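SEQUENCE-TO-STRUCTURE ENTRY
===========================

Backbone structure tokens: a row of integers, each naming the local backbone shape at its residue.

Task: work out the structure tokens from the sequence, keeping to the layout shown below.
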Amino acid sequence: MYIHQVAAYLPAHIVTNEHFTRLNGLSHDWIIERTGIRERRKAAVGENTNTMAIEATQRALAAAPEFIHGLDLIVGATYTPYDTIFTVAHAVQHALDVADIPVVSISSACSSLLNAIEIVEGYFAMGKASRAVVVVSEHNTAYNNEEDTIAGHLWGDGAATLLISKERLAETDLRMVDLITGGAATVGKANTAVTLKPVERGLVMPHGRDVFTHACQHMARVTSQLLERNQLGVEDVTYLIPHQANLRITRNVLESLGLPTERAVSNIQDLGNTGCAGAAIALADTREQLTPGNKVVITVFGGGYSYGAMLLER
């Protein structure tokens, strides 16, 4: 299967670290030291998970307008839904006006991008689809408490869409070579480390250290596993795109793998933690730089816990 196009949507409004300094006394330097984040995007009034997903999808299709002919699957992913019934996948289908095709919305926290792609892999393998939209969208600020000094400064909003086909459509397509996902709900403080209970407190992260530890371990381990089973070494990786949760996590994973800093793609400095959309946004920013033979690994970790890694080749 092949990624034919990737496009992102980011809200226009920028929230800098100084906002949190004024709000709760967290200094710009302290936030950068702990997270690497300098600013993040915040959806405007009238914007939400569904509207951002639609905009990202329309941008992807504008770059590949022929793709909609034969589109037969839409998979959406988010843990910050605008509507749990008229889901993000339904909203995209409605906007595209493509009737009578499967629409699926899933959530496995910040690792949902790879689970969504894995669903497409299954549909393709069973012969039930051949062209799919995968859209990942997060409206973190709808649930976030900015006065929370533990995690209130981490979150940003954004969306991205991937157009995926069973057959190669263009020379610039990225081939999906391999994909591994797994749940890790049995380890550490998985059941309490990051939660979003809308009727209670919203989006909170009371056990950040536990998240940090397991994210570093699982992302490095699954990346090594992916490379080993494809008989590749770290020197073969052109870019590593990790889940955009914390710059210190990225650095730790790079160190564990033995990859130089310049091989990692990072957008958390400018966007904050955009959940399952973060790695897809980073892929959208990186895709044009890739040349034939380049290999990209996307590795993710989500609260709950869950993890995964995917190998792409140009």
